[in-house]
Structure formats: C-alpha cells, structure tokens
Amino acid sequence: MARNVKFGGNPVELLGTEVKVGDKAQGFTCVGMDLKSVSLADYEGKVRVLSVFPSIDTPVCSLQAGKFNAQAGELGDRVQIFTISCDLPFALGRYCGAHGVKNMVMLSDHLDLDFGMKYGFVLSGLRLLARGVVVVDKTGVVRYAEYVPDVANEPNYDQVMEVVKGLL
Fold first, then answer.
1. The whole model's pTM is what?
2. Which CATH superfamily is domain 10-167 in?
3. Sign of the C-alpha dihedral, residues 81, 85, 90, 92?
4. DSSP reduced 3-state for 39
5. Which positions are catalytic?
C-alpha cells in the first residue's frame, strides 16, 4: 500500500521502507559538511535524533533546523541530533555559518539516498526527503517515528523531546 504525504498541496508517494517504533534502526551513510562519510554507527551509545526535511533553503526547514539546534545545546553529549536532507553539503555549511548552528551534525543524503530509502522518506519523483523525525535509543532501537503528513508543517517538537528525555 502506497504511503503519501502532501507536498505543495498535492499527494506525493513516499519511497523506501517505513520505520516503526520498536524496529532495529538500520545503518546508513550520508555525507557531512566536510564531504566525508558519516554513519549512524559513528554515534553508537548515544540517543540519536534524526531531523529530516526537504531543503534548508525553505522557511519551515530553516525553522526546524534552528529549533533542533537550540534543543541540542540543552541536551548535552548523551544525545546527538542530526539534520538530514538532500541539500548539498555546501548549502548546509552556508546555513550553519549564517545561523550559528554548532550543536547538530548536518548530513546530506544527495549521493544515493541511503538514509531516505532505508527510512522511507524519499518523495517520489522529486529526489527530496519528506519532513519528519526518528529517535533511536542508545541500543539502536527506534523509539519515535514521525512522518509529517504535510511537508509544509513542522514536526511535533514537544513529543520528540518528551521521548528523548525519557531515554536519558
């Protein structure tokens, strides 16, 4: 059965494997701002928040990155927040420099959509990721998964933080 979200007011199919609470988190590799590979396994032993969106160059995505950056600064080193999009690493770096983002790992899935396909966030026909959040506990189990039904809306930050704080 096809899964859809709204993008620009129209339904768009999500490609890849939908993750659910209780699933073992699949490993994935993306590209960091320094053009080096970064994997989920690089941060084993931490609670990991995967903040996903289409493009840092849009207002809602920028807002999402800013809110998670602020929350990351409050959570300390037991939690690692990642921002994942198909933006080029250069665009992510430009955004971080312009907005003082220092508390998150910014990742690009532009090369092969490894994260997007393994976690079911690829917007069919657009080569962009949908908006959502996945929380992975210290043992590698998915404890929260949100696919925002309309890409124009923000994720549920309060619910994400409630789950994260419950895992600490």
1. 0.94
2. Glutaredoxin (3.40.30.10)
3. negative
4. strand
5. 61
